[in-house]
Design a protein that fits this description.
Layout lengths: L2 H11 L1 E3 L2 E2 L10 E3 L13 E8 L3 H11 L4 E6 L5 E7 L3 H6 L3 E6 L7 H7 L7 E2 L6 E2 L6 E6 L13 E6 L20 H10 L12 E6 L6 E2 L1 H13 L4 E4 L1 E2 L8 H11 L3 E5 L20 E6 L3 E8 L6 E2 L1 E2 L1 E4 L7 E5 L17 E5 L5 H10 L4 E5 L9 E13 L1 H13 L5 E9 L22 E4 L3 E5 L2 E6 L1 H18 L5 H10 L14 H4 L6 H6 L2 E4 L3 E6 L5 E12 L5 E6 L8 E4 L3 E4 L3 E12 L6 E10 L4 E10 L8 E7 L6 E7 L3 E9 L6 E11 L2 E7 L7 E11 L2 E11 L7
Keywords: Cell wall, Hydrolase, Protease, Secreted, Serine protease, Signal
GO biological process, one term: proteolysis
Protein name: Minor extracellular protease
Amino acid sequence: MTKRGTVYRLLLGILSVLILLQGMSMAMGVNGVALAAENQQPTIDSSKRVVIVSASGDVNRAVDVVENRISSAMIRNIYENVYGGFSLEIAEKDIERLKQLSVIARVDDVAHYQPSLEGSIPFIGAGDRLMDKQDGKERLLTGKGVKVGVIDTGVDYKHPDLEANYRGGYDIVDQDDDPMETKKSQGEPTLHGTHVAGIIAANGRIKGVAPEAEIYAYRALGPGGQGTTEHILEAIERAFKDDVDVINLSLGNTVNGPDWPTSLALDRVVEKGIVAVTSNGNSGPSMWSVGSPGTSTKAISVGASLPPVEVPVINVNGLKDELTLTPILGAKSWQLKASFELVDVGHGLLTDYKGKDVKDKLVLMKRGRSNFAEKLALASKAGAKGVLIYNNLEGAFAGAVTEPIPITGATLSKTEGEALRSLLKQRKHKVKVDTQYKVKQDLMAPFSSRGPVTETWEIKPDLVAPGVAIQSTVPKGYLDLNGTSMASPHVAGAAALLIEQHPDWSPEQVKSALLNSTKRLQDEQGKEYLPFEQGAGRLQVDKAIQTRTLISPATLSFGELEKGEGVVEKEVTISIENISKSTKEYTIDPPIGEVDGISWEFEEKVTVKGQSKKAFTLQATIDQHAIQKGLHTGYITVRDKDEDIHLPYMLFIEEPNYPRVMAFQMAHSDKANGYYYEYYLPGGAEESSVHLFDPDTLEFVATIIENQDQGRGMVNGEIDNLQVAPGRYKALIYAKNEGKTDILEAMIHIGEEWIGP
């Protein structure tokens, strides 16, 4: 292949693993456990205890007294505001001495929580004692005999927790039979596929969801976790030829469209009998942020929720509300205990530190103008204790660095960061930051991408599963990671258990069982997440294997409808399958009266004989004048005497306000001043263009791309001779369609070194 073809192929098809590294260190501890040379298990120091201490007076004075008088005491967390005490690790022999101190009111033992598969797997109803009790018999479900293909960065098949279940695969990147993870000698090393495989089927120190499933590894993503559409398609093809039962793809791009090749490939492979499970993306929490292949109609797209996890929360004097932090992954784990002063350092550039004392303080900086690694490195060199980076765009974000950096860091939303910056400007006194650690569960992970899908208006994700602080296997050890990449294999493992239980089931039946049995989640204010955020709800494996009814489709879309004066009828056909041996009578309960302008016609009762299925039609009659514009969503309930099954639905009135342009990329061509470019138009555009601005002054520089009357899909082309001075620019990608406009921001580099043929 020519150099031009290779560059263009990489540009048009690039995919990356959907991963958020919580900590890159492989040292023994909460975030990573390294295997010893002879695979020995780490030892625990039983001579020490962790306790919670309540102070009798001033907390900081109590901390000072304990540290000065008890040499074995190591302060862990200070809870000055919410408890009036602190936690510490202390030698067992010094416990009584601690209790006798006048500054101490009481001492309590603490229950340790270590986020791991031992936490997330029982939480979703799976684990060592998951029993199939159908037909009056009992048998343990482990995924035995079920073949699961992991399309990823490869797998460390020599890992002691995976070697027994590894059965083979293929390296698509190097075109050989050795799908080992990328090693340092080959480029930027990887670990992602091994982590995913462990969640599915680890069977050693930790156990996956289906610990006896067979793992087939397909290395489609090479050094640094990068690969192309071509790689992914070949991996899917090979998995099909290897006759796998389930494939997991914890990868994706930012194209929210149902017709991207990887999405279509998953639709096809599901039709051919393979259960396809894919991550929904880590671009949340904005609506429309799901990317391909998570947009596949027939695959199971998985978002991320919280298992029981301890998260850092900061309180700032002068702010009413506490702020939940998202740790920067690859930086030092956020384990700050004391109170620290906060200093604003602009964008965190070298010039921003001039005249500022940040030693042993927290620094606040804005995202942009340098990468995360550069920001953290400069803060560390300046002696800062930690870094808070707030977004330069609306919403939250998750940052990561590829190499470990010895300073703690976390991210905040734009609103939160600007509130802190305003406080620093207003207050005459020092602004102090205190960290608390709270256990949260069954909340949506803020980074989890939201739907729906453009064009089809389908609900995505289909469901959610734990994707925060998930400990699993990595080369030579174990590590906690965050991401929808970690949520997806929980569902793939659950699918393996269902296939073991029902080897004759189709992918559609497996999908229905998983979605029909979920738990609907609420946010911290008690408000239920919308279907395009959580799909049908959170995975419950124990409920899925007990289900006696399968309803398909498990999520419903009534599409998009314009306002008007008439009445329009929208119909969906719903299938009820009774897998029990007895006749069941089902009651259909649509949300009558919940939305003005919609009336429902349906069969109130549907009788289905044992081990048979029956279809019924649900019709929504929509008064185009009476109904309000916007998104209408809710649940249609199908119930019998044993269970209620809730089917989420969505209907858009007027064309939704989805992004008119997305997924912009630009790269050098094989000409000295030549560049390839691409961007995706979900609904087409009457006009689209790309404009460059100075990133510091925002002064207009040039318009470099202009296109007219483009249809829906990917727009790509080549700039032959770009006459722009070398440097870094803010690019604004503009699109207009049917009177609606949208602008996408991106940072690009012009004038990087070109190497001729």
